[in-house]
Design brief:
The protein has about 240 residues and is α/β, with parallel strands linked by helices. The chain contains eight helices and eight strands, in the order E-H-E-H-E-E-H-H-E-H-E-E-H-E-H-H. Helix 7 packs across helix 8. The protein is globular, with a radius of gyration of 19 Å.
Amino acid sequence: MALADVNDTRLAESAAALEELGVRALPVHCDVSSDADVEALRDEVLDAFGHVDVVMNNAGVALLGPPDTLSMEEWDWILQINLVGVIRGIRAFVPHLRHRGRGWVVNTASVAGLYGYAWDTIPYITAKFGVVGLSEGLALYLRPLGVGVSVLCPGLVSSNMGDTARIGGVQDPRQWIQEMPLEEPVTPDVPGRLVCDAIETERFLVLTHPEPIRERIARRGADPDAFLAAQIERLPTPPNLP
């Protein structure tokens, strides 16, 4: 199994944990915002294993702040990792899968890519909506060619994602950050098992909190205006900052 991460310490820890389970691990330093890094990852993986069966585009960061006051550099940071990083993974690995006529692509999006759940995480929502749309289009393209596609849309997961989170465009972050209006977090093993099940059963949409999320998707699809109005009514009023 090949592992890629920009954090070398965590990369080594994950590789060691796999080795303890008897799994051959290939740790590769990779920044998904770099074309060269992702292409080098592909080359190293193919050199080591000869082929790829499953590609999981999972890297992600969080950016909070008013969308109209965030700098373009801040916008570029999150989009380069959360959306264009997935595109780089597709460009690097999908030709190999397509030529083999088999394999699976899993893209990590979020419930944030299924409906706008808050106003304080708009850059994150923007990127994740892109990943969901990209994945759906990719399924139309690749499934007839023998390559499966799934999109993982987790709710809250107990993880270290907060370590790299950023907030911009405000002087006092406390004025902007709100409590997330989502269900209780699950542990990281939950989405891991769900992804494996989705590949085995050839499912596209993977949800960690299926019942409430499917109900919200259905309401949004049935009447988008009413759903949006209900969301506005339910959420606290945003601060009108300078």
